[in-house]
Amino acid sequence: EVQLVESGGGLVKPGRSLRLSCTASGFTFGDYAMSWFRQAPGKGLEWVGFIRSKAYGGTTEYAASVKGRFTISRDDSKSIAYLQMNSLKTEDTAVYYCTRWYGDYGFDYWGQGTLVTVSS
Amino acid sequence: EIVLTQSPGTLSLSPGERATLSCRASQSVSSSYLAWYQQKPGQAPRLLIYGASSRATGIPDRFSGSGSGTDFTLTISRLEPEDFAVYYCQQYGSSRITFGPGTKVDIK
Predict the structure, then answer these.
(1) Can you tell me whether residue A97 is helix, strand or coil?
(2) Distance from CA of A14 to the nearest CA of B (A)
(3) Contacts of A111 in chain B (CB under 8 A)
(4) Are residues A45 and B56, on separate chains, in Cβ contact within 8 Å?
(5) Residue B35 near residue B12 (C-beta atoms within 8 A)
(6) CB nearest B88 (choices: A44, A63, A108)
(7) Please, where are the H alpha helices in A9-92?
(8) Contacts of A50 in chain B (CB under 8 A)
(9) Beta bridge pairs of residue B6
(10) Which residues of chain A fall short of a pLDDT of 70?
């Protein structure tokens, strides 16, 4: 059974950093791109960024709203994807979801989400 | 960036009725890389449709997707009580993935 479990969320002050983890199981992690999405309280879904599999260079893409502040990485030996968030702003407050990207077949598995609150 | 617009914002229907949700893109969506998600309060989104018209694993056949280019539709043939939720369209054909603002389907 495919499972994605996010961790690392919490309350953080503006300007500080936080690292989220996404621990995967039930599939060959290294074969898939992984993506992060977020949802601010009461709002819609927003794409944050993704990391391709090593077979496709392991390169990353980011939304304009986080580019230069957030970094996605992966450790295929541990089946974990990371979202390093620096210079956090109050508008980064959201539930952050980790997903598996199954190419043409879309983002087929989502974690339960982890809440990040940026507030002084 | 491709902007997605969904209509209507809210759809009030009764169980057993047919729901038709629209998603329009500001430019053509590459290779019909258009997906639909269902989200219930306090839950993660669930993939319903990918590639504009293919049902994801385990999705009942009352859900169907259609369209190409810039106009896409999600149809729920007969609403079940568990179908009342928010539905989002998403395009993943460009390296800047975007969502529509969502359509809420609520009970009339």
Answers:
(1) strand
(2) 26
(3) 44
(4) no
(5) no
(6) A44
(7) none
(8) 97
(9) B23
(10) none
The rounded percent of chain A whose pLDDT value lies above 70 is 100
Query: Does the distance separating the beta carbons of A46 and B44 come in below 8 Å?
Result: no
Q: What distance in Å separates the CA atoms of residue A115 and residue A94, rounded to the nearest whole number? A: 6
Locus of tokens 């975007």:
B98
Confidence band for B77, pLDDT divided at 50, 70 and 90: very high
Amino acid present at B38: Q
Interface test with B, best of A3, A22, A39, A45 (most B CBs within 10 A): A45
- Positive or negative: CA dihedral A18, B96, B47, B83: positive
Distance CA B83, CA B106 (A): 9
Phi and psi for B30 in degrees, rounded to 5? Answer: -60, 130
Confidence category of residue B31, pLDDT binned at 50, 70, 90: confident
Residue of B nearest to A62 (CA): B96
Buried b / exposed e over B89-102, threshold 16 CB at 10 Å, is bbbbbeeebbbbbb
The answer to whether the CB of A104 falls within 8 A of the CB of B33 is yes
